[in-house]
Amino acid sequence: MKIIRAKDYNDMSRKAANIISAQIIMKSDCVLGLATGSTPIGTYAQLVEWYQKGDLDFSEVTTVNLDEYKGLTKDNEQSYYYFMNDKLFSKVNIDTKRTFLPDGMEPDSDKACRDYNQVIANVGGVDLQLLGLGHNGHIGFNEPGMAFEAQTHCVQLTESTMKANQRFFASMEDVPRQAYTMGIKTIMQAKKILVVVSGADKAAIVKEAFFGAITPQVQASVLQLHNDVTLVADEDALSEVGQWL
Question: Does the annotation mark 67 as catalytic?
Answer without folding.
Answer: yes
